[in-house]
Prior knowledge:
Number of helices of chain A: 15
Oligomer: homodimer
Shape of chain A: globular
Largest interface: A-B, 66 and 67 residues
Strand content of chain A: 25-35%
Amino acid sequence: MIKKYTSGRPINTQAVVEQFDSISIKELPFKNKIDNGKFIFEFDMSEDDIVYGLGEAPRGINKRGWVYESFCSDDPFHTETKSSLYAAHNFIMLYGSNTFGIFIDFPAKIRWDIGYTSSNKTVVAIDGTDFDIYFIDNGTPIEIVKEFRKAIGTSYIPPFWAFGYQQSRWSYHNAAAVDAVIDGYNKADIPLDSVYLDIDYMQCYKDFTVDEEKFPDFKKYVEEKRRQGIHLIPIIDAGVKKEDGYSVYEEGRDNGYFCKTEDGSDFEGGVWPGIVGFPDFLREDVREWFGSKYKVLTDCGIDGFWNDMNEPAIFYSEKGLENALNKAVDMKGKNLDLSKFFELKDTFLGLSNNAEDYSSIYHTIDGRQVCHDKVHNIYGANMTKAAGEYFEKEFGKGKILMFSRASYIGAHRSSGIWFGDNHSWWSHILLNLKMLPSANMCGFLYCGADLGGFNENATRDLVLRFLALGVFTPLMRNHAALGTRNQECYNFENCEDFKDIVQVRYRLIPYLYRIFCKASEENDMIFRPLSFDYPDDKIARECETQLMLGDECMICPVYEQNVNGQYVYLPEDMTFVKLSGTNVSTEEMKKGVHYIDVRLNEVPLFIKQGKQIELCSPALRTSFLNAEDCIMIP
Amino acid sequence: MIKKYTSGRPINTQAVVEQFDSISIKELPFKNKIDNGKFIFEFDMSEDDIVYGLGEAPRGINKRGWVYESFCSDDPFHTETKSSLYAAHNFIMLYGSNTFGIFIDFPAKIRWDIGYTSSNKTVVAIDGTDFDIYFIDNGTPIEIVKEFRKAIGTSYIPPFWAFGYQQSRWSYHNAAAVDAVIDGYNKADIPLDSVYLDIDYMQCYKDFTVDEEKFPDFKKYVEEKRRQGIHLIPIIDAGVKKEDGYSVYEEGRDNGYFCKTEDGSDFEGGVWPGIVGFPDFLREDVREWFGSKYKVLTDCGIDGFWNDMNEPAIFYSEKGLENALNKAVDMKGKNLDLSKFFELKDTFLGLSNNAEDYSSIYHTIDGRQVCHDKVHNIYGANMTKAAGEYFEKEFGKGKILMFSRASYIGAHRSSGIWFGDNHSWWSHILLNLKMLPSANMCGFLYCGADLGGFNENATRDLVLRFLALGVFTPLMRNHAALGTRNQECYNFENCEDFKDIVQVRYRLIPYLYRIFCKASEENDMIFRPLSFDYPDDKIARECETQLMLGDECMICPVYEQNVNGQYVYLPEDMTFVKLSGTNVSTEEMKKGVHYIDVRLNEVPLFIKQGKQIELCSPALRTSFLNAEDCIMIP
Lengths: 634, 634
């Protein structure tokens, strides 16, 4: 049962598609107050209550014991003490002595103190007084999630081939580099469906351009790759390079499509192309315009995109840089002083994604100038909506692969997400796992992390173990940053082990695609915390290293280096399946604690009693898979 | 059996105290070459071989699958992909199909590629050709460690009270702040033996001064605290503030005691006090001079110190800052360009601990000018030696508590170490655990991490779980950084839980002190990997979440948030002991995998069959402990 409490005059984020009558915020069943322009409410928690939610966010599946902030952030250091990642997914659910869900539909900052300041209290501070709160109770956790998901609308389903294995890097900067990747995979006989084009495929990082020196006849090249069964997925950034003669910029400028400063001039920030204008995606006409620009690439046969830098990320503003330089000039020749030194260093460090810069950006909503601070969290979602609306109109539902870095609930109807610029850290295997059920609760089904880790150097075993989790994530993409070690499977020793793991993915695709579509249709989750299925099992309730998958399975990836095994907890008797390339071994296992052997080329999977899943033969491309050719296991 | 292979003319680091005949490096039983001035050797590893060692270093107990660098580094972000921490402990041990230890006595950089580039190969690159390699074989891992430890001499034993619980923060900046801490602990009835003075107790961060406004009659104050059973532990930094009229600086300058630049002038770098001179601790006369300065504080009754910033940390040099400012001035008014922006930002970021600055520092060794690059890793160790030599001469062995941030093997004879500026991250509980056996192998017995985490905000449960490991570490110190949440036990809700944990420590002190002294006398380890005791047990061999403690125990801390339990593996039948304040519960447990319940106020401990340990009654100070009043458990 959903109740909608309205305060003030909320901005329409289009997150919710069902209609609900508004109840006055005064009726909200939580202790609350308005303090310094913020609406603050709180609720108590019993000692063993769990708090789920927040989608793409740091830390555990259980969000207790930390303070989070809804604020789409371009911050690549996903350490434990961060409060935000790239998304703002304002749904939480208390599960325990009392069970209910809360969605706060509000596009600016929200601070969630979930047992941080006081262990048994959640205090939520909304940075304003214009918002809707949806309160959902009377149900089990999965019932509450389904009711919420119904309210926010059906989740995006990508094309079938998007379930294939995907290889990315910043950057495969020309056709020869892309060919080398495809060749490397072909020679190693490792399946592959997509290769990504990061920012260097463009002319000087200009959206909707292709550098002709790097890709001489792009359309022909794309078609040639398609004949090889490979999809090329170019990146699109939020900022449009300021350059006379560049038509996208000129159209944006001449039509007033870019975000403004207070005085009505275009806001200008520095990103990859240098100075850019930021399209005001909150306007329908701007979305229509920007969305139609993707045609340049779809006309070349491109059928997949990733939208990036749309938090929006801003390396610097002209004003910020000028201030920093002035400070430096001021200090020149003066006596050194430690506090001045740190002040200067911090000024340069603080140039990127600077709060003052964000505050100086203005959008136009229904003819009104609205400060960016009030709508920050829906900027990226609306960029993706621009593309999604165009694709659906032009090609119909689910024909184009689309996923985004920044997101807000609602964007799940038109795209997937990836979890941003993670690191080649073992701990990020578990972080990836932990975000899966949280993202599912918020509607995002097509998602995944950069397998092997984006930043810094990966090791062979890390990539293998990361991929062995990625086998189950709808988006299975290996991605790495400029300057890091080559991370493509064929670049490591004994790449047969990689072949085994990626082949397991292809064998599972019919099953994974089936449960994905079912979850979308039924507003269900693909990945669930164990507690959803075993509410009375103490160990299952606190387990954050395993997940339930569909109605049939439990997964348990290995997430430590230099081990050949892994602890696992079985909440009931299950069949332990070890998958590896063309091999399948099964073993009945009793409820309880076990230590299982898992070699680097193996994927562990547990199947519930009385359940079976289909497994097909591996193939080099999703298009070669034969779903008729499945065996059932166990 | 130890063999010493000598190449060139090694600098005498005084790491090894036993005499060995030199064998020509040509006889070294490893494939080797000299490449670009580096001596590089390698050995193969079987798939299941383990590599132990490197003391204070990132990542696992098993060092396989990463590349490390011996280079004392002031870097507070102890993430998985770092290659160095504050120490350079050049001992590794291969354990498996072949078992041997290697100590490289060399004070400059060494790169250890332990199965990173090639999974089954270790490649060690020594940044020079003047070094000794000690090769130790023919023994079990513990025999090899003991033989190595005998060669490097007996480990430092601190005063008994240094086993008490210690509270630190950057900073308790005056007497009232210190009193408030003691008062807080007294009122909460939580044991405490020491309170730390971080940099703010000094006059403008000047070594061997006390700010009289903050501590009006320091000697009287120290005596008063001692009557309350509390030891005050001041910090000493490596750099000496450049200030006319400051006697320590003037003596250093006038006697030529500071490190030089190439032209013979004093090298000047910016640290906490602003511009400082760095004493050339590699000279015996400078050590004697600097060591004798501690008298200012020991005369006030101080009997414990921590040496900091001695990697050495350098925030900036005048030259580096000038270059950065010039770059900024140059850019002013010019057109923006992304690469220029990043260049400038990176210049400011790179000012601290800058390689060019290090290269411009010169030491005097036997009358020769030696570039800092050649001796970087023994700088901090010699600072600590300066103090240790003075204390031993003046007070005798083990009377003064002394530990250091930077270290090199050899310093273990005169001091302990702490593991530097960690974070309030759950993952740092395990990092702490993993460094304990590694540090022990290298002679460092008195050691520990900043419990609760130094940087960023801690949560109540994190501090409790961190302390529950710290109960077993010889140095049990809670420490937190400026600007972070208060981390003293009494500042959290229900501090009875903290009382339980700290009381467990005091009950264990007679046992811990006994095994500590025994380990020092017998060149033994206090903490061992499980594989040392159970070499044929596959699960034990790869376990990195538990440690053997003394001859009697196994420890297994809880290291995750929001859990009431923990997986544990018993390599044999053991007694599971749960300790909590004045309570003890015991349970016989069978060999195998278990999930144990451990509440926030409990410390889990496993005792081997047929073994017992002594447990005394808790007390508020170590001086109140009655070792006669012990019970034996189980």
